[in-house]
Structure prediction request, 349 residues.
Amino acid sequence: MTGFEQLQTRLAELSPKLYPLFSEEFGDAVIGVERSQLIETAEELRALGFDRLGMVTAIDRQEWFTLVYRVASRSLSAAVFLKTRVPREDAHLDSLCGVWPAANWQEREVFDLFGIVFDGHPDLRRILLPEDWVGYPLRKDYEDDRIIRRPDYI
Amino acid sequence: MALVDRIGAGLESLGGGIILTTVDSLVGWSRGQSLWAFPMGTACCAMELIAASFNKFDFDRLGTFPRPDPRHTDVMIIAGTITEKMKPAVSRLYEQMPDPKWVIAMGNCAVSGGIFYYDSYSVVRGADSFLPVDVFIAGCPPRPESLQDGVLQLRELVRTESIAPGKRRERTLNLPQAPVAHTGSTIAEGSGEVE
Prediction:
């Protein structure tokens, strides 16, 4: 029985509501939700004992951004990835700072580099780049005068 | 006599413990003997910089001693990548150092941007774009021996400076030379030193 199957078995007992949302990707447990249900799902996970938010990141998929949250539980000895999508033209979603306070700086980083706005974030400012920076560098279509492109022969 | 040799040019010994020198030579020598360093460690080169301070390399014996306060220091050792966000902080810390002050750029990132030269949106391409750098040390990262060589070269540079503002004394730099391959018996050719 793999770690995912063990977790699945326990979740079937603990939370019948979350259980059907789970899937397996490369051996990891993943919950994919709509962005309107993000906070609800996060609170459910938190109540189950997933008390440690380890990572918040985003992936630029051209038409949409995928938001990835990795949360772990010490009591269950398990970790899950919480995923959601936001469309590129309407890149905003609810902040999870109220559920896991550790989300504060991580969401600022995602905002800084991807330009995704977190509604309800207490202090949404740039964190890694200077305050007066224009643009969001980790977007695939980012261009800048400062960048020197690597020539083909190197 | 060792002291006389180290103070160097512009100095002569009259014997009997009396030496004649210029103020410039003496001040330059003194400054060169205690270059307190401000460790501006911004990335992984700082690990080598830290290693240089501890036993085995022990930079204290060269008079180079890390101080956490820029107001106590003579030389800023920039060890690591400088980002656009960090640039004002580095610049400000440099301004806080008292004159005379020098800068060592340690590692490829501080020299030119290093591996972040291409395709980077946030890395400053070289500390010399906004600071007067005296010594560049290449390497990714440089070993402490390289840093030691850099500090010794900076010491030679410091000794040429005059206390008059903007003036530099005439002096040939006594930089370490590359070792010359030993080619065999050069002594035996009638020098009289061989029996």
Observations:
- The two ends of chain B are 30 Å apart (CA to CA).
- The longest strand of chain B covers residues 37-41.
- The helical segments of chain B are 2-7, 23-33, 45-53, 87-96, 108-112, 144-159.
- The interface with chain A takes residues 84-85, 117-122 of chain B (CB under 8 Å).
